[in-house]
Design a protein that fits this description.
Length: 152
């Protein structure tokens, strides 16, 4: 959104013909390295400022890790560790991407779609751990009986 607002609208309309350094400075928004750096900083700041709040909310909702009983005493200390932290990561990535990226790029939407699908897999894994109280999470796919596997 910032690219379209600051570069497409302001710079193209006023900066190309203006002598103002402000409008001419908006030209940096066309560079992918500039926007990537600021998107990274934005995602980091979102994670830092919202991280404690998200963790407290997850703890309040009792969204915690289940631990198998047969594991060691040291491992039992991890019981109740909040899961679903991917919500914070995905939120930070999506917000910073929507702020800084060129939204007319097909590859951007393909990458966000793939990220969303991986997030859905992570959510399903954590959901099984929490609701079914099964510490193994999402099971791996098993080949059908009699199916030939491809050689490595």
């Amino acid at each position: 959104m910032l690219y379209h607002l600051l570069y497409q609208l302001l710079f193209r309309q006023y900066g190309a013909t203006s002598e103002s350094y402000f409008y001419k400075g908006l030209n940096v928004f066309q560079y992918v390295t500039f926007r990537t750096a600021w998107a990274t900083i934005t995602a980091l700041l979102i994670s830092l400022f919202l991280g404690k709040w998200v963790i407290r909310k997850l703890q309040a909702l009792k969204v915690g890790q289940e631990i198998r009983e047969e594991l060691s005493e040291e491992h039992q200390a991890k019981k109740g560790t909040p899961t679903m932290g991917g919500v914070l990561i995905l939120g930070a990535v999506f917000i910073s991407t929507l702020l800084w990226a060129r939204l007319d790029n097909l590859f951007l939407w393909l990458a966000l779609g793939a990220t969303t699908l991986f997030g859905v897999i992570g959510f399903a894994d954590d959901y099984i751990k929490i609701v079914k109280k099964r510490s193994l999470g999402l099971p791996q796919l098993q080949p059908r009986p009699g199916a030939k596997l491809a050689p490595p």
